[in-house]
Amino acid sequence: MDALKRSMAWDERVYGREYDLDVFNIVAVDDFNMGAMENKGLNIFNSRYVLASPETATDTDYENIERIIAHEYFHNWTGNRITCRDWFQLCLKEGLTVFRDQQFCRDERSEPVKRIEEVMTLRARQFREDNGPLAHPVRPESYVEINNFYTATVYEKGAELIGMLRLLVGEDSYRKALDLYFDRLDGHAATIEDWLAVFTEATGRDLTQFKRWYSDAGTPRLTVSERHEGERYTLTFSQQTPPTPGQPEKPPRVIPVALGLLNPNGDEILPTTVLEVTEARQSFTFDNMPTRPVPSLLRGFSAPVILERETSSEERAFLLAHDTDPFNRWEAGRALAKDVLARMVTESATPGPDYFTALDRVARDEALDPAFRALALRLPSQDDMAQTLHDAGVTPDPDRIHTASQRLTRAVAETLAPTLSRLYEAMDVPGPYTPDARTAGCRALRLTALGFLTRLDDGQRAARQFAAADNMTEQLGALAALLDIGHGQEEAGRFQRQWAEDRLVMDKWFSLQLAHAAPAKAVELAQTLAARADFDWKVPNRFRALVGALSGNHAAFHRADGAGYRFVADWLLKVDPLNPQLAARMSTAFETWRRYDADRQGLALGEMQRMMATRGLSRDMREMLDRMTE
Q1: Distance of alpha carbon 19 from alpha carbon 70, whole angstroms
Q2: For 571-620, what is each residue's pLDDT tens digit?
Q3: Is 72 a catalytic residue?
Q4: Residue 145: its pLDDT value, please?
Q5: Under 8 Å CB-to-CB from 60, ≥6 apart: which residues?
Q6: Which range, of 115-129, 137-151, 419-433, 529-543, averages the lowest pLDDT?
Q7: What is the average per-residue pLDDT within 460-468?
Q8: Sign of torsion, CA 127 587 393 328?
Q9: What are the pLDDT digits (tens) for 398-441?
Q10: Residue 594, exposed/middle/buried by CB under 10 A (0-12, 13-18, 19+)?
Q11: Does pLDDT of 146 surpass 80?
Q12: 370-387 pLDDT, tens digit each
């Protein structure tokens, strides 16, 4: 109710939209495939996005509830009062409403932190989709089963398009265009053309080229080179979008690039300026630059593109220390970590001091939001590293990536131990638990420090925290830290006995064990958990908690003997006759199979072919498997 009331007030204040009925009904359902559904005046929610208490819900749960309650409420105007003419316009209501719920969450919490989290989700889900056989435009041209197009491309990339449009026309013009949109199309079924037409009318801007973002699949690659001569500095951008199924060639799009320039001493000499890259190759010059500046490119992640530019570790460390754009500070640290990990994977290298020095500086910077520091300390995911190596022309080895990640985690713990210990103590929030942004950020940083420190003290701190925790965030975080180092079996047993009667908490118990299991043991653990009487696989939340957690454990799912592929395929075949939507969505675990070695490719393809040969396979599953194997 708190989230709903704040959503209503925010929509009145920011978009001028009031609720139009006397009653707003919310229903919570355990057995629900989706997160929620926005029926007019009657929103149906998966119970995990409504039911919460400090003892049973984590900070992340509270944030998700806030976001999803807001999202479904915002659909009252962008989805219900103005709906879609046909299914091909799905991104119109979903992309716009996701963007609106993102704006709401940024206003309610830390804008930089929420933006970083949005981009992490986009890259983990949508970039992966764009880079494989399931790539499709934001506005699809055809479908076999519409349920299969409730995708990250429609939702998350659709939201990025709204954000780019707002950046290109400016906040005032965006509001003017939205007012016109609501006035003109209230009570109508709209199209993307209707949406763009109100922007053209309100701003006078020709959006013909921008419309390509809706029709062309794939993530553009934006390559950047630079030249400094005399006092003139030149940036040259080249854009190219790789082929995707059915679209071998793509013309240039308009790409807004938010740019800042810094002096070598760290001072900002050009505040954020938006460049519009509209050609395949395009240059921009800046005069009165006696020294070569350091560019801060794509600030705030101003466009959903892959930025390719040769930079040194020293420059990334410089940006991590001095950039005034929080997103790019985080991005610089992430790039540093990926460089270090890539060398550890491919060359068995030892991480150098630059990375640790930069990381320590950020960790100790009390002017920064604790939630931001927690994100800056977090290592790239193993799936992210696999894609990074693949993009660099290296066949990723999941086992080597896992080993390198473990080595780097311990190296950070050993090098930053004094700083991490101080953070762990300093971020202990006194008083009763509240899920507000400030205290949630402190807990996030404290648990991040704990995850590193657990490598050094054999889990003693984590065990004490687990025993003393009075809220789910700290209890679950301590258990995760213990499981990460191969401990925690006793604590996991106590957790299970404590929460055996709470279905939502037990979903966490199933998921956490597999997400943090050693790859060599994860499949066998999944088999043991699947045999339990309380593994009710017919409940979508419980099925995702087990099968989804195993497929998300990168090295376990891609195990060299194919056991991960086989386990997931077996369960997809079991759930498909009962719940084809769930099976089809979770089959996307296989979509990256082509980036691995020939042996793993053969094993993954074999499991997909086995599923395709199964009699009575649903249309939902068959479409996904056909697209992934064609």
Answers
A1: 13
A2: 999 999 999 999 999 999 999 999 999 999 999 999 999 999 999 999 99
A3: yes
A4: 80
A5: 473
A6: 137-151
A7: 98
A8: positive
A9: 999 999 999 999 999 999 999 999 999 999 999 999 999 999 99
A10: middle
A11: no
A12: 999 999 999 999 999 999
**Closest CA relative to residue 622, chosen from 567, 592, 577, 555:** 577
Angle between helices 353-364 and 417-426 (to 10 degrees): 20
Contacts for 514 with CB less than 8 Å, ≥ 6 apart: 522, 525, 526, 529, 546, 549, 550, 553, 556
Pick left, alpha or beta for residue 380 (phi over 0 → left; psi -120 to 50 → alpha; otherwise beta).
beta
Q: Which of 38, 63, 72, 108 is catalytic?
A: 72
Which alpha helices (DSSP H) does 170-250 contain, by range?
Answer: 171-185, 192-203, 212-215
Beta bridge partners of 285: 234
Q: Which amino acid is at 120?
A: M
**0.90 exceeded by pTM:** yes
3-state secondary structure of 150: coil
Question: C-alpha 53: how far from its chain's center?
Answer: 25
State how far the alpha carbon of 120 is from the alpha carbons of 123, 131, 239, 334, 401, in Å: 5, 16, 22, 11, 19
**What's the rounded Cα separation, in Å, for the pair 292 and 295?**
9
Tokens (6 digits) for 543: 């099925």
Partner residues linked to 260 by β-bridges: 296
pLDDT digits (tens, 9 = 90+) for 47-101: 999 999 999 999 999 999 999 999 999 999 999 999 999 999 999 999 999 999 9
Phi, psi of 417 (to 5 degrees): -50, -45
> Reduced to 3 DSSP states, what percent helix, strand and coil does the chain have, rounded to the nearest 5?
60, 10, 30
Q: Which is nearest to 514 in space by CA: 501, 527, 504, 503? A: 527
Ramachandran area for residue 109 (φ above 0: left; ψ -120 to 50: alpha; else beta): beta
pLDDT at 20: 96
Ramachandran angles phi, psi of 256, nearest 5°? -75, 125
Tokens of 553: 């454990």
Contact 272, 323 (CB under 8 A): no
Q: 18-62: per-residue pLDDT in tens?
A: 999 999 999 999 888 889 999 999 999 999 999 999 999 999 999
Would you list the DSSP string of 86-100?
SGGGHHHHHHHHHHH
Residue 282: strand pairing partners: 237
What average pLDDT does the structure give for the chain? 96
Mutual angle of helices 460-468 and 437-453, in 10-degree steps: 140
**What strand order describes the sheet that includes 281-286?**
281-286, 232-240, 221-229, 306-308
Burial annotation 543-555 (CB, 10 A radius, 16+ → b, else e): bbbbbbbbbbbbb
